[in-house]
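Q: Please design a sequence for this.
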């Protein structure tokens, strides 16, 4: 398992977002997708049973993960079971940084330090 999932994603989803269910669903999908290397076709019921959450809690967790762009879904037909794809944006960012390419993350840009009065240091 990526260290990022335990060191950063867990405190972010559980502590900051106050969505421990989203973290549980992410871990469950991580296992079912072989560490985000494959897609997984699962019903909400299967995820709920696998995590011990209610179906509604799973739906809320999946919505939170989709909003954070950590998971995406697809289905062949309107009545088909969803196929889940896990995303690892930190892995792509690390690869770009290792290759010397500028980061696509606007938060990574350096900002000059300022004092309380707004003057540069």
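A: Design:
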């Amino acid at each position: 398992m990526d260290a990022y999932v335990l060191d950063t994603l867990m405190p972010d989803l559980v502590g900051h977002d106050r969505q421990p269910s989203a973290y549980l669903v992410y871990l469950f999908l991580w296992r079912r997708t072989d560490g985000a290397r494959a897609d997984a076709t699962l019903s909400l019921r299967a995820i709920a049973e696998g995590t011990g959450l209610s179906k509604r809690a799973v739906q809320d967790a999946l919505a939170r993960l989709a909003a954070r762009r950590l998971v995406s879904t697809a289905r062949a037909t309107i009545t088909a079971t969803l196929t889940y794809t896990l995303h690892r944006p930190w892995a792509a960012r690390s690869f770009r940084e290792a290759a010397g390419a500028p980061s696509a993350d606007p938060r990574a840009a350096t900002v000059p330090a300022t004092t309380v009065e707004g003057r540069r240091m």
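Q: Thanks. Anything notable?
A: The first strand starts at residue 40 and ends at 41. The mean pLDDT is 74.
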